Amino acid sequence: MATVKLLTDAEVEANPAAKAVFDDIRATRKSDFVNNFWRGLANDPALLKRTWEGVKTVMSAEGALDPLTREMIYIAVSTANSCSYCVHSHTAAAKARGMTEAQHAELLSVIALAGQNNHLLTAMQIPIDDAFLV
Question: Could you tell me the pTM of the whole model?
Answer without folding.
Answer: 0.91
